[in-house]
Design a protein that fits this description.
about 15% strand; about 280 residues; Rossmann fold; oxidoreductase activity; seven-stranded parallel sheet; KR_dom; single chain; alpha/beta
């Protein structure tokens, strides 16, 4: 769609854009796959398990049939924790399109264990999936992302999913996860400088959302988490979809290198505990 009166693209319109969402079959990735599809984008999403991809793809296609202006959806099974999986994902994307307008690096891994029991494997797995894979996909998909700028359109986008655990000390012992998300936030800045002006790179740092990864925490501590949040709740699908849609849309074309907390003000309004020294 176009803002015909002004002769310029509508600032929040992503209809017709082709966007890849990694880890798009469940959790925040599924929220984004659905939200971007509703907004008229062609959504390519990946997940590791073929059965999960097939189920999510069918559910999203069924959803799209009842929405005026919805985009298209295509699921891709690929284990992007490996180099072979990254290469396979890129090949599949090329089978669907010769131009990519946005890459949403959402797929991630976590690991929790007490400090004295935290294993070396937890570092290899989590840093590999959460940091190395987004970098590698940016490398491999850059030619498809560059096509947008070469066509005289506003820049392509890369959006990295970080976490508030990379902004503040988490309440749970997830050492490699927290470190990896802090790394994602800094990698976002480095890539933003490297890939400008043709590709804008920003990050979103979500707080608690109702996902499978967070289920046990919300089941055990949901009321406590709500009370600690200035807005008194956890995130909703429309919260993450609205922000990512904006970052993909023309209205964000002067933003790059940012990490935006999406946590109801939790990290930005944190108080330092004060102690009586008497």
């Amino acid at each position: 769609m176009t803002d015909h009166a002004a002769g310029a693209p509508a600032p929040f319109d992503i209809a017709g854009r082709t966007v890849l969402v990694t880890g798009g079959a469940r959790g925040i990735g599924r929220m984004l796959s659905e939200g971007l599809l509703r907004a008229g984008a062609t959504v390519l999403f990946s997940a590791r398990k073929p059965d999960a991809v097939a189920t999510a793809e069918q559910e999203l296609r069924d959803l799209a049939t009842g929405i005026d202006g919805a985009g298209e959806v295509h699921g891709i099974a690929a284990d992007i924790a490996t180099e072979e999986g990254c290469q396979a994902l890129v090949a599949a994307v090329r089978d669907h399109t010769d131009r990519l307008d946005g890459l949403v690096n959402n797929a991630g891994a976590t690991w929790g264990a007490p400090f004295d029991e935290f294993p070396p494997a937890a570092w290899d797995k989590v840093l590999g999936v959460n940091v190395k894979t987004p970098f590698r996909l940016a490398q491999l998909l850059r030619p498809l992302l560059d096509v947008r700028g070469a066509a005289g359109l506003d820049p392509a986008r890369i959006i990295n999913l970080g976490s508030i655990d990379g902004l503040a000390v988490p309440n749970y012992e997830n050492y490699s996860y927290a470190a990896s998300k802090a790394a994602v936030h800094h990698l976002t800045k480095v890539l933003a400088k490297t890939l400008a002006p043709g590709i804008l790179v920003n990050a979103v740092a979500p707080g608690p959302f109702p996902t499978k990864m967070m289920k046990w925490v919300l089941d055990d501590h949901g009321e406590e988490i709500n009370r600690a949040n200035p807005l008194g709740r956890v995130g909703r699908p429309e919260d993450i979809t609205a922000l990512v849609t904006f970052l993909l849309a023309p209205g964000s074309s002067y933003l790059t290198g940012l990490t935006i907390p999406l946590d109801g003000g939790l990290t930005s309004t944190m108080s330092v505990a004060m102690y009586d020294n008497d």
